[in-house]
TrEMBL record:
Catalytic activity line of the entry: Hydrolysis of terminal, non-reducing beta-D-glucosyl residues with release of beta-D-glucose
Native source organism of the sequence: Apiospora marii
SUPFAM superfamilies documented for this protein: (Trans)glycosidases, Beta-D-glucan exohydrolase, C-terminal domain
Pathway: Glycan metabolism; cellulose degradation
Domain Fibronectin type III-like: 793-869
Name by which UniProt lists this protein: Probable beta-glucosidase F
Keyword set, alphabetical order: Carbohydrate metabolism, Cellulose degradation, Glycoprotein, Glycosidase, Hydrolase, Polysaccharide degradation, Signal
The protein's Enzyme Commission number: 3.2.1.21
Signal peptide feature range: 1-29
Keyword Hydrolase assigned: yes
Superkingdom as given in the UniProt entry: Eukaryota
One Pfam family this sequence matches: Glyco_hydro_3
Amino acid sequence: MHFLSSGSPSGLSALSLFLLSDLLGTTAGAAIQPRAVPAPYVAASYYPAPHGGWADDWADAYEKALKLVSQMTLAEKTNITGGTGFFMGPCVGNTGSADRLGFPQLCLQDGPLGVRTTDNVTAFPAGITTGATFDKKLMYERGVALGQEFKGKGVNMYLGPSVGPLGRKPRAGRNWEGFGSDPVLQAFAGAETVRGVQDQGCIAVLKHLIGNEQEIQRMFNVGQQGISANIDDRAMHELYLWPFAEGVRAGTAVVMTSYNAVNGSASSQNAYSINGLLKEELGFQGPVMTDWLAHMSGVASALAGLDMSMPGDTQIPVLPGTAYFMYEMTRAALNGSVPMDRINDMATRVVAAWYKLGQDKDYPRPNFSSNTRARTGLLYPAAVFSPSGVVNQYVNVQADHKIIAKQVAQEAITLLKNNGSLLPISTSAPIKVFGTDAQANPDGINKCTDKSCNKGTLGMGWGSGSADYPYMDDPISSLKRKAGNVEFWNTDSFPKNLPDATADDVALVFISSDSGENSYEVEGNHGDRDKSGLKAWHNGDELVQKAAEKYSNVVVVVHTVGPIVMEPWINHPSVKAVVFAHLPGQEAGDSLTEVLFGEVSPSGHLPYTLPVSESDYPESVGIVPNGLGQPQDTFSEGIYIDYRYFQKNGVKPQYAFGHGLSYASFAYSDVRVQAVTPLTTVPPARPAKSGDPIAAMNNTIPPASEALRPEGFKDIFRYRYSFLAENDAKNAYADGAAGKKYPSLPPGYSTTQKEAGQTPAGGPSGGNPALWDVAYVVSLTVTNNGTAHAGKASTQLYVQFPATDNAKYDTPVLQLRDFAKTAALAPGESEAVELTIRRKDVSVWDAELQNWVVPNPEGRFKFWIGDASDSFGAVCYSDSTACETGVPGPL
Ligand code: NOJ
């Protein structure tokens, strides 16, 4: 294990990092122009940065923000758009403040599944586990609990949810932070998380915009360009941008860019993705921040729409403590390089996000330090000579969140196979347990920084998306609590000389597969599973095979970040049951054993496809290795990832996306479809923008005096401030007054705001509101027609587009569009379920028209209803509004 880049909580690492960076020298602050990428992948020039302040759902927040920002000096405006520097405050990111006006420093903290690098918090199940519940209510409730914990610790911004990566590459390191390899599953889960977190007053930071589909070579550094995700316009809209659109619609107040480049232009200064896609098309009104140390230019990134630099350093945090924003942004404003309407827009977006969440009213201050666990410590560890004080108050924010954490972990448990109904097993069965994954890490549950080891029960992946466990309810403790006859071999090598097996013996074999962030290497894997591939870790295949040779009843329990290949053992007759428990967080024990012993039925479903072999995937989704120049990651499979690819190419998976068995069985009746809003080929025109309050601000360059330190102000060494020395301020102002221009304005640069009509697909908070018009509603009754077990049914709706001879609109065989989960239904019990199809769900993105198009509004859309992407109980037709049961699926 070694430390490579961002995100380490330890002051020591910070120190070594900035000393090392001094040796390497700093990178230039100039814009890094888009690199050549294969045709036709272009990061089109898109200027100017759209002003905020024209969307109704932000109107109140903007009204207040405009008042506050109008009173700010230039240095106050630029102070709140920059971070104070790596390890220069209690949180992983800390903004500057405008204290004079009551605008505080904001605390930004990881991560998506719990408050990182602190104590007394809940380690929730990971995103991928949450996706596997296919339950919107649980997704929301997990968000509520997360929001309460982040707020309780005094965190203003929750650095999540992660909806990019989308999970295009099965080996990619951080897919588990998100919710599954389907844009709609990812979008619903992301949006519900945003709502849950923000309903508590904590700001959600939707990340990472965009194309962060692998870890290796994700970052730009002095030696090499970060990887370029080359994405065509249609795949961008139908896959990768989709969850961002829904997250923006759900009200996310902030968005974070990614490390990689998109179509040759680094994400943090990519005018096409920030200005064009996010702010103009999706009408995003809040601020856009960099990922950590992904900031690479001052003026160029501001013009490209970036609003906040995190953690505030230049690309490499050098000893003198330099920044691209802060004092440099003050200079750029005075000398006219960055127009004042851009500066006002940046500051207003930040303040509006704060007001939108009501954080102006008694929001707690940070009461923890992500730098140390001691009560007292350095206030600014990277300052070299830092004052110290009380930094940790050990506030316990867990409340009763273990209940929702356990419920998510449990309802994600996905039963793939259950031959001969081996499960559930009786608590009196002789149970033989194998595998180190069954027991918590004996070295300590939080032994490895950011979970950068795979030892003991795998409850989460590694990196900034991890959190400390308050405890770990491991499977073996729970098994021993519940069952009378449990023997455990805490080893991954199948023991020799075991007593003969009896016919009643049940062997439980625990295996795992881990991945994480590229900041650590674990067992030869650099974030992505580049070494292990999709094979179970720690010789898991052999452990299962040997157990299957000895015992005739084998249950395999898998803790995993994503797909694994089970081919070596899945068809062994003794391997009767396979259970994916995903990444359960702290509640790995009872959540699982209650399912194994039949106290509850499993109800989780696969949030990705399980292949027979890794060669089932297209070559383009392999990990692109390090190389000379900028690594090119060309998304040549277009819209065909995961099950869309398998289905198009007739590749039979081991288990299909959405698959998951129950002990109960379900039937559909009263299936109906109702047409709601009539469809036209293109959506009705988008609404006009309701005014431009940023243009109405005082956008003239202020006097140089607005850039100066208040009298008597004492600096902390390496802290990033927005002030300029008097001479610098005067010189910058003189340059501006002389009409000097920024020498390398990007091609296509303009200062004229775009009219609404120029972006037909655009609109406030997510895009043209007509895209959300309900086109059809499918309703049905789900009945538990089993006799022995209660269970929750997952109902999934997949759209099949009408056959069309227009090759332009080639569409996947099936696409998930909605899902719902019932309550636990007792045998014989029923529940009414409703599933919705919106205009966007029956549209394709037309890159020429730059709009969403319903290819054939009068044609026959088929709405397949089932419990997996290959298992259907009913189908409805859009043209006749008839529905049928008992029709096999389209494959
Ligand atoms: C880098 C990660 O990519 C991002 O997700 C995280 O929020 C920041 N580091 C801060 O730790």
